[in-house]
Amino acid sequence: MNYKSILIMVFICSMTFQLQAQKYFSKTGDISFSSETPLEDIEANSHTASTVFDLESGKIQWAVLIKSFEFEKALMQEHFNENYMESTTYPKAKFSGTIENPEILDLSKDGIITVNINGELSIHGKTNNIITKAIFSIKDGKVTGNSQLKLAVADYGIEIPSVVRDNIAKEITIKIKAQYEVLN
Fold this sequence. Notes:
Blueprint: H1 3-20, E1 23-36, E2 41-54, E3 59-65, E4 70-71, H2 74-84, E5 92-99, E6 111-123, E7 126-139, E8 142-152, E9 171-183
Antiparallel strand pairs: 1-2, 1-9, 2-3, 2-4, 3-5, 5-6, 6-7, 7-8, 8-9
């Protein structure tokens, strides 16, 4: 083998390794949740969730600080952190899972790809298995991920005082969105 052939092989091997180990991340993921009842609708948003996924393995993770959720009313935010979520004791919500069939995520061309994701969601010191769908949109090399799921508040040991029980839904809707960047 000559010198040029060796350089070409090294280049091809290094490119293959980079493609296989490609990870995507965001530190500005959006997570919102809503509770809708006949008496009151409640919504909160965080724009500081962190997420990363590995294109080769399909591993995906999310984390958000509970105190980062913002409400329309300051009093709701205070009650959420102190009375329901106990955010000093349980400061984060985390998800760790796997994208089924990650090989269908061809991020080199524009399109919309729906995948199944399963993993474990930890909130308020409780962990439960979650299966959900996610939609990845690829446009001009930019990757955006979206998902939505419903959770029963009781599954995470969150107690709602009887005085406001009719104001808070037993099941809340969570929406997740992130614009991913390549992690170098």
